[in-house]
Amino acid sequence: MTAARHLLLLLAIQLFFVAPNSVSTQNPPAQTPMAEGNFRPCTVNPVLGNASKAKPQKKSKHPIASEPLPACLELKGEAIEVQEFLQSVVREFQWRVGESRASEDTWSFLRYLDAEELEKYADTKVLVEPVQFTGGKVAVLVRTQDAGDGYVRVQVSTHFQGNGKSTDKFSGQPATVWSLNSKGLLEQELIGALQTRFKHAA
Question: Is the pLDDT score of 69 beyond 50?
């Protein structure tokens, strides 16, 4: 009995040290493809041309700060692939959109916002007078451009309009539509979706 127990103990020790080695040989750690090189910060980020340059704006009682640069990302891929992917993202997000227009290097659309969404995405606190907003809309422009070395530059810019009335009882303006600046959140939602998608690009 003592010899048999001793033999069983030796076999158990052998299995303990040998089995893990055999398993690790059969199943090596998975090699995760590197994300580096699939996208990068923009090497340049020119301001997108828009209607604001066409006419000088009249001075207003409720001036707003200058609009920030578009959100920008350069990634390896094709411009048409970028547009198709972002269109699928907008459908997945179930945004209320309209007036969609697409060309070879641009895609524009309107997104309609309720009051809560407007406050989330636009800076509604910069006006000189208090305004009660009921909703609004945002014009979104996506522009793609060849950046060289197999990269395409993607720029996302927005222009917000809020619907509401001034609550200033003494000097409130009769305006019901107000231009607002972006907080940058909506643009980053689209840029973030691109980063997630192209992180796993081949």
Answer: yes
Q: Count structural domains, the chain.
A: 1
Q: Which domain holds residue 169?
A: 67-199
Give the domain CATH number at 109. 3.30.530
In a domain, 4, yes or no: no
Mean of the per-residue pLDDT values of the chain: 76
For 74, the enclosing helix (H) or strand (E) is: strand 71-76
Phi, psi (5° rounding) for residue 3? -65, -40
Q: Helical H runs in the chain?
A: 2-26, 79-93, 115-121, 185-199
Give 103-115 as a DSSP string.
-SSEEEEEEEEEH
Residue 175 contacts residue 94 (beta carbons within 8 Å): no
Q: What is the DSSP-derived secondary structure letter of residue 69?
A: P
Residue 48 lies in a domain: no
pTM score of the predicted model: 0.69
Q: Per the domain annotation, does 40 fall within a domain?
A: no
Residue with structure tokens 């200033």? 168
Token pair for 92: 């997945």
Distances from the Cα of 37 to the Cα of 32, 74, 83, 149, angstroms: 14, 10, 20, 11
Q: Is residue 36 part of a domain?
A: no
Instruction: State the Cα–Cα distance between residues 84 and 115, nearest whole angstrom.
Output: 29
Quote the CA–CA distance of 37 and 9 in Å, as a whole number: 54
